[in-house]
Amino acid sequence: MHDHAIQCTHDPLLAALSYLVAVLGSYTALQLAIGIPAATDSRERTQAVVAAGAAMGGAIWAMHFIAMLACRMDIEVTYGVFLTAASALIGMISCMAGLAITGSGMFTWIKLAIGGVFMGVGVAGMHYTGMAAMQMAAATYYDTGIVGLSVLIAVVASSAALWLAFNMRGAAQMLGSALVMGVAVCGMHYTGMFAVSFDPNGEDPARATAGGISGPYLGATIFAITTLMLATVLAISLIRQQRRSLIKI
Amino acid sequence: MADVEFRIVSDRREGLLLELGRLVMASGFTLQRQRMTRSEEGVVLTMLVRGPETNLLMLEDRLGSHPLVQSFEAGVPDAVRPATTTTAAPVEPLRARIPEHTGDAASTAPDHARVEVLLPALARAYPDVFSRVLAFEHELTVAQREATTRYAGMRLGAWIYKRDYALGARLNLGESVKHIALPAMRNLLRHVELNDDGLRIKNSPFTGIGLHRGSSCHFLRGCLEGLLNEPGHLGRPRILETFCRNSGADSCTFTFAA
């Protein structure tokens, strides 16, 4: 900890909301992901991987920025557009890779481990790129030990979620995997936040935050992503219900 | 060596040739040529196979109990018929060529038509299917019971798999038994457990009803076969009822081998 460090106090309601969004997003993504092994051709498989990875990356991104809105600091903060967009892309691409590896062919522990690393690194990569996007009149410092721990939490919990999603069937598959993936995303984020400290650097706040996205715009984007995830969940469940009823004995 | 032409009717095109091709090879035959068409009956796969005549009955049995096969006919292909036979003539029934198998095969083969009538009722009643299955079993001849109830079980198992367990990774046999067969059987019956001996069922409705001697849970065995065969990537695992309450054991035990 540094002298005069700026404190981040989390709003408990928004923090709880961040977990809910992480679970909802993970549910959407994993529901799409379990369709990957059932794909009949490469086109169908690619579509499932891209959709699931995008949903997972979007969920991590939305969770992160809700949690950042929950973080009350006595300093003005905005987010650089390029790095904010890059953070979402990193999350999406890593998750696509992780889901594609775990969901292809026969299930093996090696595939699960590699998939878990990609997913965990995706979660962490999104988080730390999102943190790098912060624009404020303060310098950022990290405790590398806790950063390592946050990445480990992300990898282990993501692997557990992937195991539940691909290996189990029924309620454990549907809900268990989403709850655990929510833990992966939030566990990583809040551990990562514990690793960071912000020290005022004397820069002019107006200059430091210029050109960045501020809270209201971020809130609107998060709202749009969350609505899209909800709509996707509804669409998936309706389509699956209809297909199930059409299966001939 | 015998050349035999099979005309197989199925309701599904996807994976049909792959599945039946494997089955043909597993029975010691080679696939010479095949053709797939659509007709009013469904998807029609015509396969010309070559292999030892002694394995023919086994191949027919396997085809007859395969969940993708609705019905099939076997015959001598045009190319190996005597010159006096016209090419336009209908396919000669195979059983005319191997009369020694005729009686057994016909009487013990599953009664597909009756199973087709039963299946929609099972789907409507699922998971409370046993009263219907028991009534159905009573109506069958003694010789037909095993094959027919097993076939009905296979069809139900395959349907349950497609309905409730198809989404997720491809699992190996052990994991499939644990995460697919076990929960599916628990949905049908109360006291089902998995241990080192195999899958144990304590309250099989097929025991002690006087319809069978020895192992009696052919419907349950078929169900397990349907559940584990349907994914396709496991091949055709062998499922045996190694202990049955009907033979004095305390529970019915099913074992699985790849």
TrEMBL record, chain A:
<keyword id="KW-0812">Transmembrane</keyword>
<keyword id="KW-0472">Membrane</keyword>
<feature type="transmembrane region" description="Helical">
    <location>
        <begin position="79"/>
        <end position="100"/>
    </location>
</feature>
<feature type="transmembrane region" description="Helical">
    <location>
        <begin position="218"/>
        <end position="239"/>
    </location>
</feature>
<feature type="transmembrane region" description="Helical">
    <location>
        <begin position="146"/>
        <end position="166"/>
    </location>
</feature>
<feature type="transmembrane region" description="Helical">
    <location>
        <begin position="12"/>
        <end position="36"/>
    </location>
</feature>
<feature type="transmembrane region" description="Helical">
    <location>
        <begin position="112"/>
        <end position="134"/>
    </location>
</feature>
<protein>
    <recommendedName>
        <fullName>MHYT domain-containing protein</fullName>
    </recommendedName>
</protein>
<keyword id="KW-1133">Transmembrane helix</keyword>
<dbReference type="Pfam" id="PF03707">
    <property type="entry name" value="MHYT"/>
</dbReference>
<feature type="transmembrane region" description="Helical">
    <location>
        <begin position="178"/>
        <end position="198"/>
    </location>
</feature>
<feature type="domain" description="MHYT">
    <location>
        <begin position="10"/>
        <end position="199"/>
    </location>
</feature>
<feature type="transmembrane region" description="Helical">
    <location>
        <begin position="48"/>
        <end position="67"/>
    </location>
</feature>
<dbReference type="InterPro" id="IPR005330">
    <property type="entry name" value="MHYT_dom"/>
</dbReference>
From TrEMBL, chain B:
<protein>
    <recommendedName>
        <fullName>4-vinyl reductase 4VR domain-containing protein</fullName>
    </recommendedName>
</protein>
<dbReference type="InterPro" id="IPR024096">
    <property type="entry name" value="NO_sig/Golgi_transp_ligand-bd"/>
</dbReference>
